[in-house]
Amino acid sequence: MSDVESKIYDIIVEKTNIDRAKLTREASLSELEISSLDFVEIVFAVEEEFDIEVPYNANTQDQDFKALGDIVGAVEKLVEERG
Questions:
Q1: Fold (topology level) of 3-82
Q2: What is the rounded radius of gyration, in angstroms, for the C-alpha atoms of the chain?
């Protein structure tokens, strides 16, 4: 597990109180029952933690993030691009 993935999971646990053992790249946001409000809070916390801007628009319910692996992959790419 990468540092990015671990930090994202820490943020999710902090914001939702979901058991960390349930967090895998394959886990879908819907099966984890992450609400849209919780997801927005997670996005803000991830942006702050990594000093990036995640391309997510809560008004359009962007479907790019269906599973945790989608989020981890996007953040890893943004962190890499930032240098």
A1: 1.10.1200
A2: 12
